[in-house]
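Continuing the batch. This is chain 6 of the set; chains 1 through 5 are on the previous pages. Same settings as before, nothing changed between runs. Recording input and output for traceability.
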Amino acid sequence: MEHNKRIVFLICLLVLAFVFYGVGMHNSALGLVIVGALFETIFWLQLFRRSSKKSF
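Output for chain 6:
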């Protein structure tokens, strides 16, 4: 179940990034483009995060 929540969260982040990029580019609003970049950065960091479980 935790895996499914993570997938949904990542998809939402990516969709938000695209939406903010699109609106920001269309309206020439730098702030919206920056917010889109922030969402994209969070997406990539969450996608490649290491698990907190350590195996010895």
